[in-house]
Amino acid sequence: MKTAFLIFALLASNAFAALQTVTLSVPTMSCASCPVTVKAALSKVAGVSTVKSDLAKRQTTVVYDDAKTDLAALSRATANAGFPSAPVTASK
Ligand SMILES: [Cu+2]
């Protein structure tokens, strides 16, 4: 029963794996070089395809493959670079 569920979950996650777009609020971005650091950190995460930072809004929009990474990993990446972040919106 458990194994069957696991196999189903694996199949389902592959079938529905898709690019996700999330906007992260990065409140500590304060100068022109901050978004560069944030972008570099996010770009290193496997599965991330596009990173766009908006310094004025202190937000970064990330396009990622949800089969390879997740929101927690993205937040961890920015936090490790010195910029804690939190999702503003998440859409499919
Ligand atoms: Cu800065």
The number of helical segments is 3
Secondary-structure element string:
HEHEEHE
Biggest pleated sheet: 4 strands, antiparallel
What percent of the residues sit in helical stretches (DSSP H or I)?
25-40%
Number of domains: 1
* CATH class wording: Alpha Beta
Radius of gyration using CA atoms only: 15 Å
C-alpha geometry: elongated
Spatial order of strands in the largest sheet:
2-3-1-4
Number of strands: 4
Low-confidence stretches: none
Strand content: 25-35%
Quaternary form? single chain
Structural class: alpha+beta
Mean pLDDT score, rounded? Answer: 87
Say what the CATH topology is. Alpha-Beta Plaits
CATH architectural group: 2-Layer Sandwich
Distance between the ends: 30 Å
**Which ligands accompany this protein?**
copper (II) ion
Pfam family, one: HMA
Protein name: Periplasmic mercury ion-binding protein
Subcellular location: Cell envelope; Periplasm
Main location: other
What would you say this structure looks like, in words?
The protein has 92 residues and is an alpha+beta fold. The protein has a single domain, classed as Alpha-Beta Plaits. Helix content is 37%, strand content 29%. It contains three helices and four strands; from the N terminus they run αβαββαβ. A four-stranded antiparallel β-sheet has the order 2-3-1-4, covered by helices on one side. Helix 2 crosses helix 3. Bound molecules: copper (II) ion (CU). Involved in mercury resistance. Acts as a mercury scavenger that specifically binds to a mercuric ion in the periplasm and probably passes it to the cytoplasmic mercuric reductase MerA via the mercuric transport protein MerT. GO terms for molecular function: mercury ion binding; mercury ion transmembrane transporter activity. It is found in: Cell envelope; Periplasm.
